[in-house]
Amino acid sequence: MKINRSAHNPLIEAGDVAPSRPDFQVLGAFNAGVAQLQDETILLLRVAEAPIPDRADEVLVPRLNEAGTEVQVERYDKNDPGYDFADSRFVAKDGQTVMLTSLSHLRVARSRDGIHFEVEPQPALFPEHPLEAWGIEDPRVTQIGDTYYITYSAASARGVGVGLAETSDFRTFKRRGIMLPPENKDVMIFPEKIGGKYYALHRPVPKSFGAPEMWIAESPDLDHWGNHRFLMGLGEQGWDSARMGGGAVPIRTERGWLALYHGADSSHRYCMGAVLLDLEDPSRVIARSRVPVLEPEAAYEVNGFFGKVVFSCGALLLDQTVRMYYGAADEVMAVADIPLEDIYNTLV
Amino acid sequence: MKINRSAHNPLIEAGDVAPSRPDFQVLGAFNAGVAQLQDETILLLRVAEAPIPDRADEVLVPRLNEAGTEVQVERYDKNDPGYDFADSRFVAKDGQTVMLTSLSHLRVARSRDGIHFEVEPQPALFPEHPLEAWGIEDPRVTQIGDTYYITYSAASARGVGVGLAETSDFRTFKRRGIMLPPENKDVMIFPEKIGGKYYALHRPVPKSFGAPEMWIAESPDLDHWGNHRFLMGLGEQGWDSARMGGGAVPIRTERGWLALYHGADSSHRYCMGAVLLDLEDPSRVIARSRVPVLEPEAAYEVNGFFGKVVFSCGALLLDQTVRMYYGAADEVMAVADIPLEDIYNTLV
């Protein structure tokens, strides 16, 4: 496998991103959707922020107020026995997550060469609805004609659902509502209609039984989705045996739709793999990676806010090379060029 | 509250239903969808069956084979320490449900007077797809024109999703696919278009955070659903504070759409209540029950396969009286007539 990680990795770090308000700090800029707009490469970053603490023994929780109009910061005592603060990403109570310790929004970064990015000073999409009260995360961008469709995780006390938005210029955005209800994430819309219908991969997380696995759905109009079918499940052992979900928007190749997806094992080590889907019937799996395409190995992948994670939300096909942009360690953005042939070689 | 339980309750019991094969026994006939077809009242029953055991120390698990073509029975030793058999409804492993101990199908029962029913000798809809491998459950029936649309829970190792089927005569049925992915249940389609769109109530169960609460979605065609909005959440305390979901198909009244819904408290006691939704915009809650409309009190409601449960999947409006059909104790069917005015009096 010839993985060519950029010498400029990480491409974007927390320090490159201005916080949305002076009393907040940026914890990470990662898991970006990718688009090509004229001669620019666009990264639509997930920017995770948290209030700057002024005391070590308190936990600050940022979230929208009930009306969805304003971010408020709640203060909790780290020694409060009613809550569990062991995982710095969230606050738990009775074994259930009840709050997140950061609030994510989406931010545009632009580049002429696909490597050197300029991050815009203001958010592109900021939580503004009660169903986004805990943040919006992990966007995927699909270009169809001149319109870019953005799916994102909308988190709130009601669970994590999937929001849909659109833009034509990455300056103004229009929300189109919640396209899939909780719990669902990792939704990528295919870049063209197939047999007259739109398709999307999605990743529900059922509670009573079942696992975080990949499904496919159809739509006449991108807003309404149906004919949900199970696509592929956890690996029996190894890198994608504990959880999985779509990654980059599927890329049309001669052999089929190439969908890069993430998988994790029981130690929460996230890798990227690939699945090849039938061009005419994308609910049909042709082959999937036996071994990962990309594993967390570089220092910025292994160490960080949540280490041992590579997580792609977008990739470009440049001739016979896949340029995979990916979040590393839930903190920074990186890129790697991987020969298409080497990805094919992981498939069985 | 003038609850008039029928003197003929339970209307249908397990013994009234022939098993689908001679080596199976019927455990319950309950949670039926309701329809009026010409001069008949139709109950579309959930019939739960299990293999007849021949040894006390084994647990038999019925489910479709991988291809979805045939029911197979697997045998487990009750003393196997790898599994947890404590709850007779399912088999657990490492705290997660991994199998159900019964397999449900849907069966038609017909009546001229709405009280005395004749149960058909054969299943109407039987599991026949890998996503139905653990059974199909809890149907709701909505008549639109001459077509009856049936939503049902489709259970499998992939989770519980929502299947859609249709019929015009309750003799032949056509499946239309999975309309909502796991985990979701308790879906009822409104009986007419509102502002040019179909509407449905649904009840997702998110895993990471969030609760089993009620949502509403829209559709142009009944197959594809979108614009998912949160409708109403758990009560702060009392009868509907632990879980809730839609019950009967909403009934048009002068005051709004009357939707009977179920709620349970932390002791798993299931009651029925009501919510009134705006006639023009059913995502707007006008009022909901402060106290239950129906509570498990009769012997057949308190005792049974899973006691202290009343659970309605369908009701009829007869002049100013709601005739609520309901499953009792996850085992039998019952009916109660309740003055509309008394239901209104529970609303705040």
TrEMBL record, chains A, B:
InterPro entries assigned: Glyco_hydro_beta-prop_sf (IPR023296), Mannoside_phosphorylase (IPR007184)
State one molecular function term (GO): hydrolase activity, acting on glycosyl bonds
- Check the record and name the SUPFAM superfamilies matching this protein: Arabinanase/levansucrase/invertase
Q: Which family does it belong to?
A: Belongs to the glycosyl hydrolase 130 family.
Name by which UniProt lists this protein: Glycosidase
Keywords, comma-separated and alphabetical? Glycosidase, Glycosyltransferase, Hydrolase, Transferase
Q: State the organism named in the record.
A: Paenibacillus tritici
